[in-house]
Design goal:
2 copies of one chain form a homodimer. The first copy, chain A, is of the alpha/beta class and about 400 residues long. Chain A has 3 domains: about 20-75 and about 80-90, Winged helix-like DNA-binding domain superfamily/Winged helix DNA-binding domain (Arc Repressor Mutant, subunit A), CATH 1.10.10; about 90-205 and about 375-395, 2-Layer Sandwich (Nucleotidyltransferase, domain 5), CATH 3.30.420.40; about 215-375, ATPase, nucleotide binding domain (Nucleotidyltransferase, domain 5). Helices cover about 45% and strands about 20% of the residues of chain A. A 5-stranded mixed β-sheet of chain A has the order 6-5-4-7-11. The longest helix of chain A has 25 residues, at about 305-330. Mean pLDDT of chain A is about 90; it is low at about 1-15 and about 405-408. Chains A and B meet through strand 13, helix 10 and helix 13 of A and strand 13, helix 10 and helix 13 of B. Chain B binds a DNA duplex (30 and 30 nucleotides) through helix 1, helix 2 and helix 3.
DNA sequence: TTCGTTTGGTGTCCCAGAGAACATAACACC
DNA sequence: GGTGTTATGTTCTCTGGGACACCAAACGAA
């Protein structure tokens, strides 16, 4: 039911203003449905702590705007009247953009973290910020008709491998892309015509794993990704992403792990990402490069003692970084992605043992190492989460003002 | 004005139940007044974003319960009707307890972080958990008459140098005290008759510095304290204390800073607190021990090159730990307390330069090293914050149910 | 079939915050 | 030293929104 029109002299503010309490509750329900993909009304009632009747009203309001829809209850073997199931609308979606050294990937992601479409645009050389924005805008332009007809886009999220200030979406420094002080979010927003935000790739990955992946249901998580160009980290503490003063927090790739280690491109020495790198492994294997699964195959196939030694050397340094992380964050889950996941898969108990013996007893007992669960969709889901953020903070306000209110 | 009695059939729940929104706003105002000590009604209106009239009602409610009081405006040179000033009631207080290896300190702290009383009970030997609890309970018993007559005690907070689970106030491991799995909060609660909570000392210190000290007005802060028994850390990110899964987060004293370093009592090697310790300094100075100011004097007085070299050695390791912290948390402030503060005071620019050259450019530019601002009251204020926690979360509910509602 | 159980739906009640209008107390300017 | 301006406290009314009670509906169990 729509809210009745106000009789009193209309205030200057647009009519989108909603009571904070109501907005909160609508946001809460939308987020829950987004995170769980399906949730019965009864479950929503329990999780929100709100009254049955209130939850009913809220869902009615969301359903009227086409943000969620209800389906007949699946007769679970339970006593009592069955509760209808609430799902996120498949028409709400966000765009995800991920620039890398050899490609720009663009994705279309639904609420619930469902990747509808993923387009990888390979580039001849490392794309500049301008080029990456142009590629993304062009791909989005190509989808425009489809987007306009079948979707309501809440925004674009850009995952950047580097230091990003998420407040204004400016890339302060992305060493491997060679970007410096690029206002990527503003550029892409102007080029594509959607609201746009940017953040560090590993931070977004951590959030994605928290919501839909190996960290689901947890509140404290450390995510580490080993890629071709270095090691990125994202930390979730108390259910919230660690941002820091300017959003630069989480750079675990530059954890100190070795006295008089090699010089890192960051200027310091002994950084995790200079000592632990897939480049060293490929070099030892005599391969010129490849992706993660090729690396794992090659490592498993190799009988070379030099390779084995290098693996155990890298595991040692990784354990030091993880020891620090465990003592510092007391996480429930440590997620290793990319080639770090490969290293772990090769000798899981070796790393577990190192960690258990080096970290403080209390925190060490609780920290479980896991490989990433979301695979190749991870970064799309994480970036899309950025594109959903403003929508999820105020679903109805966003739809009635920020988007065309096309009925389903 | 008291809330009018409900006419409808009284529900089973006690009449203390309050609308969540109202409770939130009351808590918000109480916390603001607590943090700022004095705040005009106009300032409260701006900070809360609530309506003038609403703020008036809320303050009226708090004043009626004797939680805050208003005083005549101090005619600040400002146009317009002056706004009365709101201050926390001096009758609301929390107890603070801090067991150390050679003493148990008990404090009485008002809202606003005013330490009314501090009693240091020196012990012959390291107190057991039972002994520390008995000492605290005895001292509190001694104050009982005064407490009952002049104060309303919201609770006891215990700061423990070690791993503490703040959920149940159990000390998992306090190596220097030799405590293991001691339910300190429960023990003291039973012995003293007040609600009691316990947490890590450095975490509480970090909170105290955030609210009243060098981190006031900031949201991201790293606190490091160098004491006789090691180095403790507390981290505040996004305005919230880092807790981790069981509240063990923040153990920066066991950050890895040196390959093939000495073995730490925690089992690992190369920990910050084994390489950087005031014991080494006292040893080199040929002094058997002393407090922080004595150390500073002795270090400044000494012309020995060995001492100078040790100082620079320790600064180097400290810089490595701080580098990690800056890259990981992107804090605005790093607070160095205890002998770490002394080390910094001896060569501030040396540490600043090391940090600037080693940490990532973005985060490094923002992180400012500061000495602690709260001095010897720091731990009392921090522990008291724990004792205030439940009160601040629901001020009126707490007073009408949890405390005798003695009118002022 | 009947009963107990769980849930959705509807109507009522009332708290709590917003806002307008008025009152009040300072400064500023002539 | 009046008068205007500005900022704030005070009072009153209005309304949104959640809780609750009651009833209806839909399921399992006996």
């Amino acid at each position: 039911m729509m809210s009745s029109p106000r009789q009193r002299a209309a205030p200057a503010a647009p009519p989108s203003e909603l009571d904070p309490s109501r907005r909160n509750n609508l946001a809460l329900i939308t987020s829950l449905v987004h995170h769980h993909r399906v949730l019965s009304r009864a479950q929503l009632t329990k999780r929100t702590g709100l009254n049955r009747s209130t939850v009913g009203t809220l869902i009615g309001q969301l359903a009227a705007l086409g943000l969620v829809y209800e389906t007949a209850p699946t007769g679970g073997a339970q006593v009592g009247r069955p509760s209808p199931e609430v799902r996120p609308s498949p028409s709400i979606a966000a765009l995800a953009v991920y620039p890398e050294i050899d490609a720009v990937t663009i994705g279309l992601v639904n609420l619930g973290g469902i990747v509808q479409k993923k387009i990888r645009f390979a580039t001849e050389r490392i794309p500049s910020a301008r080029e990456a924005v142009n590629i993304a805008a062009a791909v989005i332009e190509g989808m425009r008709t489809e987007l306009d007809h079948s979707y309501r886009i809440t925004g674009i999220g850009v995952a950047v491998p580097g230091l990003v200030n998420p407040d204004d979406g400016t890339v302060r420094h992305a060493p491997h892309l060679g970007w410096r002080d690029e206002p990527v979010a503003r550029m892409l927003s102007e080029a594509a015509g959607y609201a746009c935000q940017a953040a560090n790739d590993a931070s977004l990955a951590a959030e994605a794993e928290l919501i839909f992946g190996a960290g689901a249901g947890r509140d404290n998580l450390v995510y580490l990704n080993g890629g071709a160009s270095g090691i990125g980290g994202g930390i979730i503490s108390n259910g919230m992403l660690l941002r820091g003063a300017s959003g630069y927090a989480g750079e675990l790739g530059h954890t100190f792990v070795r006295t008089s280690g090699e010089q890192c491109h960051c200027g310091a020495t002994g950084c995790l990402e200079t000592e632990v790198s897939q480049g060293r492994l490929f070099e030892l294997l005599g391969v010129s490069g490849g992706d993660t699964s090729q690396l794992e195959q090659a490592l498993r196939a190799s009988g070379s003692p030099a390779v084995a030694e290098e693996i155990s050397r890298q595991l040692g340094f990784l354990a030091i970084a993880l020891r620090n992380a465990v003592n510092t964050f007391n996480p429930e889950v440590i997620i290793l992605d990319g080639f770090l996941g490969v290293l772990y898969a090769l000798a899981p108990s070796a790393l577990d043992d190192l960690l258990l013996s080096q970290a403080l007893d209390g925190p060490a007992a609780q920290a479980k190492v896991h490989p990433a669960a979301l695979g190749s969709n991870l970064m799309m889901i994480g970036a899309a989460e950025l594109g959903f953020a403003r929508f999820l903070a105020d679903p109805t306000g966003f739809v009635t003002t920020g988007l065309g209110s096309a009925a389903e």
